[in-house]
Amino acid sequence: SHTRVVAGLQDEGAGSYNVDGIKTNKNGVFEMSFTIPQDTVFTTAGRKLVTTNVVNPTQALEFEIIPKLTVIKLSTTKLQVRGIGFAPGQPDQKIHVGSTSAGENISAGLYGSFLKEVAFPDIPAGDYQVSIDDGFGESVRAENLVSVTGTANITNVQPKSGPVGTLVTVDASGFAPEEKVNSTFGNMQLPIVQTNEQGQISFSFTVDQQMGRDTEIRLTAVQTSLRNTTANFKITGQLTLVSTISGPKGTSSTIKGNGYAQNEKVQVYFGDLNLTRDAGV
């Protein structure tokens, strides 16, 4: 009883580290804790021996340092990744956001740690696990997920202009996988559409009767309005009705049109004859 016990760590080829001692109680029992010193060989991956000055080294207990990865989202485009407990010079691997690799290969320094900034890869919006191979075939995963806002983008509008009644096809990407997206065309509410597993959508709609102009197509994620994108389709004017298409001289005929701008001056011709003089519609 009351024996002074000094505990320590041993690493083959790297020496040992001792912590402050403690005395046993009257029954020869002791309990103590200590912190592994930072920036030493004892923070590198692998098994260490926990020893005391009163125990034969062959009776020492093993303590294994395992790699740990933490991640902080610095901005919508950058991550900060920190690794500790890796083997020096390892893992020599790229960070993975989900299943997509990002940045250059990363290796730990002499004491098994690294701190790097990594740009987000081009992936759909969503929550992702960040991981890295430890250099020996085992995946090391960060405890927290990172949220990718995504940059929604209308990639194609076809055609880009036309009269009322035109069938328009819209393609977009950068949304979350299989998320619902609100869509509008000017003051026209379009049906909600759902993206595929890559965060892409493709849908068509028919231009309704609105004023002629560059009319906005807007897509907004139902989950968050931060994911949105716009493009324009130009509605052009057209004649929609000539009530009488034949008859003798003096026959009355009504002409209608749509898709023109509000208060636009429209000239209507019959052959070379101007039937209107700056008529407002």
Which key terms come to mind for this protein?
Immunoglobulin-like, 281 residues, 4-stranded antiparallel beta sheet, single chain, 51% strand, mainly beta, rod-shaped, 5-stranded mixed beta sheet
Description:
The chain is mostly beta strands. It is built from no helices and 27 strands. The protein has strands spanning 4-5, 7-11, 15-18, 22-23, 46-52, 61-65, 68-73, 78-84, 91-97, 100-107, 114-119, 126-133, 139-148, 153-158, 161-162, 167-173, 180-185, 188-194, 201-206, 214-221, 228-235, 238-242, 255-258, 265-266, 269-270, 273-274, 279-280. The strands form nine sheets. The protein has a five-stranded mixed beta sheet, with no helix packed on it. Strands 3-2-5-6 form a four-stranded antiparallel beta sheet, with no helix packed on it. A four-stranded antiparallel beta sheet has the order 10-9-12-13, with no helix packed on it. The termini are far apart.
Write the layout of secondary structure elements.
Blueprint: E1 4-5, E2 7-11, E3 15-18, E4 22-23, E5 46-52, E6 61-65, E7 68-73, E8 78-84, E9 91-97, E10 100-107, E11 114-119, E12 126-133, E13 139-148, E14 153-158, E15 161-162, E16 167-173, E17 180-185, E18 188-194, E19 201-206, E20 214-221, E21 228-235, E22 238-242, E23 255-258, E24 265-266, E25 269-270, E26 273-274, E27 279-280
Parallel strand pairs: 15-21
Antiparallel strand pairs: 1-4, 2-3, 2-5, 5-6, 7-8, 8-11, 9-10, 9-12, 12-13, 14-16, 16-19, 17-18, 17-20, 20-21, 22-23, 24-27, 25-26
